[in-house]
Amino acid sequence: MSQPIHRPALQLDRRADFPILAQPIRGQRLVYLDNGATTQKPVAVIQAEKDFYEKYNANIHRGVHWLSQYATDLYDGARVVTQQFLNAARVEEIVFTSGTTDSINLVAYTWGLDNLQAGDEILLTSLEHHSNIVPWQLIAKKTGAVIKVVPVFDNGELDLEAYQQLLSSKTKLVGLVHVSNALGTINPIAEMIQQAHAVGAKVLVDGAQAVAHKTVDVQALDCDFYVFSGHKIYGPTGTGVLYAKYAILDAMSPWRGGGDMIHTVSFEGSTFAPVPQRFEAGTPNIAGVIVLAEALRYVQAIGLDKIAQHEDDLLSYATAQLSAMKGIKLVGTAAHKAGVLSFLVDEIHPHDLGTILDMDGVAIRAGHHCAMPLMTRFGIPGTARASFALYNSYEDVDALVASLKKAQKLFGVSDE
């Protein structure tokens, strides 16, 4: 008889904070395991957006009336909250964007175009999301820079020896994911940043899958750029953050022109506002930014260390459960992982599997996860992916396992 799988007491029980999770799906209890794609929103975040439009809605930075001034205070206050969340040295180092993709494109089309030239090298890793690949391909085509790629081992860990060998005086930028969205691998970015700086390269860290799961200190990391999206950390879609060291940001050219990013305008020419306003042309997502700050407060009040331990316990339990099942192969077994479990089930395409699990109210992601080069490296079209959040539980994992067994039986590949 197999031994029961260890289930330490979970750190958190926050499902009740999230109204959507009380909603049955196809008559079943909703088991939401697609958090790598987007997280659900707690009552505090939903209420903050409702409050803004009911009580404070106005455009910012240009109005003299009370509503405009109050909305401006909330918006500017959100920048302080974000600065403290990342432990940035200065509030001016925080630029609000529409998301991780927008933040990376901002860096690519400002810093990249101004600083890269023919023969320079951009070093990316095999674990990157398309949003940290395609912008650099476009910039490489414009500048003549060359893209190099750090390989990944079969277990989903980067080949750090190859990384060191690829670094050279030609390396001008390293684009590095903090946590892989497809495999959950946590990269040793502090060490990698230090090595990149030793050859004079700048480092951009994609933190989209990291900030909701672990404490991030940009000063301790010493990264040059750090980016993330609001919707991955219990905040609204269409919001994001670019952190950049002040000296680098201050030297960057604006990439979009319009209102609020200028100092003076004439038909003979314009002068531009200081950072960060220089990079926030036009009316921003005011409500979104204010609500993002509420989401950051929410996770900080709970404690990122508690969140990380909660998700680690869920990942360990789910890994043990799926590893014990016949016909299931885990993809990405790095020693250090966040709460992401990618897997394949014999004889069942990931898309078919996702559809079958949905009939039981179990929401997972199926496909290439915007990481097609990584899937190509493993010789597969995609995986099924369960990704955990602070509101998930052992009950959710058990529901996933039960539904997987049903799917195997349906396809006639179960020995039970």
Structure, explained:
With 416 residues, the chain is of the alpha/beta class. The chain has 2 domains: 15-39 and 304-410, Aspartate Aminotransferase, domain 1 (Alpha-Beta Complex); 46-301, Aspartate Aminotransferase, domain 2 (3-Layer(aba) Sandwich). Helices cover 38% and strands 16% of the residues. The chain is built from 13 helices and 15 strands. It has helices at 43-56, 66-86, 100-115, 134-143, 160-166, 189-198, 218-221, 246-251, 286-302, 304-323, 350-358, 372-378, 394-410, and strands at residues 31-32, 94-97, 121-125, 146-150, 171-177, 202-206, 225-229, 240-244, 262-266, 269-272, 328-331, 340-345, 362-363, 365-367, 383-387. A 7-stranded mixed sheet has the order 2-8-7-6-5-3-4, sandwiched between helices. A 4-stranded antiparallel sheet has the order 11-12-15-14, with helices on one face. A two-stranded parallel sheet has the order 1-13. Helix 1 packs antiparallel against helix 9 and helix 3 (100-115) packs parallel to helix 4. The mean pLDDT is 96.
In short:
This protein has helices at residues 43-56, 66-86, 100-115, 134-143, 160-166, 189-198, 218-221, 246-251, 286-302, 304-323, 350-358, 372-378, 394-410; strands at residues 31-32, 94-97, 121-125, 146-150, 171-177, 202-206, 225-229, 240-244, 262-266, 269-272, 328-331, 340-345, 362-363, 365-367, 383-387. With 416 residues, it is α/β, with parallel strands linked by helices. Helix 7 links the parallel strand 6 and strand 7.
